[in-house]
Amino acid sequence: MKKLVTFIVVVILLSGCNSELTLSKVTPKGNNKTLQSFITNAQDQNGVYLYLDNPKTLYIYLNGINVLQGEKATYFTDFKVATEGDTLNILYNSDETTDYSNPSLPHELLYKIKLDKKYDTIRSFQNGEEVSFNTVSGN
Q: How many domains does the chain have?
């Protein structure tokens, strides 16, 4: 019986040490007020925004909701993350449309990324080209 309890404790401890890089699409509602405020401030300008919640969690906000009259609306078609050593790459694709009222086109997205380790560099790529973050903020 003692061996069984020891085995279960070891399995629980080892499974708690297993950290993976995970990605999930989330909504701003239900998250902390500081993140919600960050997103509210970022909604004035289209672009990509990075919010560092804590050393193991960051958020990426993609904003394309602002459209000037006569211009095309930006929407997002793909989002993923990839690693290269100590560099975390944020990869997303966007497209444009004149169909401003199509509710199925995502004009803004928020992703939560749980990190598997500390990264020295975080880079952003839109349609394969490196772009700067409009704002980087956090706790």
A: 1
